[in-house]
Specification:
Strand content: 25-35%
Distance between the termini: 25 Å
CATH architecture: 3-Layer(aba) Sandwich
Number of strands: 6
Order of helices and strands: HHEHEHEEEE
Number of domains: 1
Structural class: alpha/beta
Radius of gyration: 15 Å
Largest sheet: 6 strands, mixed
Helix content: 25-40%
Number of helices: 4
Shape: globular
CATH topology: Rossmann fold
CATH class: Alpha Beta
Oligomer: single chain
């Protein structure tokens, strides 16, 4: 696992994470804009550079973004500051979620690439809410850089 963490730190050091998206997934935007999910306490698991957390914070959500990469969290904090939003970020491994004692109404879990099709990678993002419609899965494409 240490080798994996080192690889992620190197990727974020160079700002070359191919999965980074500065805009939130359309499905997340639809859920927020339609008010199916209203501002609440949210956690963004695997937040990377923090752009989904930043979007939610800009819409009035109380957000905690977590990632096991220290470099990713450094970038997330810088990005949130540059966007003028109040989002909290914490270095934490997915296997250590029990260390978080807070309760959240809305969870985002960002997964890694799931499959490749015709030169385009796809990954899965899960939105989980206790107040709205349960689990919403979105498979999102991205092109390799």
């Amino acid at each position: 696992m240490a080798g994996s963490k080192e690889a992620f730190e190197e990727i974020y050091e160079k700002l070359e994470a191919p999965w980074t998206r500065t805009e939130p997934p359309q499905r997340l935007v639809e859920l927020v804009e339609s008010e199916k999910i209203k501002p609440c306490k949210a956690i963004d698991i695997g937040c990377g550079e923090g752009f989904y957390s930043i979007y939610l914070a800009s819409k009035g959500f109380d957000v905690l973004g977590i990632d096991f990469s220290e470099k990713a969290i450094q970038h997330a904090r810088k990005n949130a500051s540059e966007h003028g939003v109040d989002a909290k970020f914490q270095v934490l491994d997915l296997t250590e979620l029990s260390k978080i004692t807070e309760r959240f109404d809305f969870d985002i879990f960002q997964a890694f690439p799931a499959f490749e099709f015709k030169g385009c990678m796809f990954y899965v993002v899960f939105f989980v809410t206790k107040r709205a419609q349960g689990i919403v899965q979105q498979t999102l494409p991205y092109n390799r850089r």
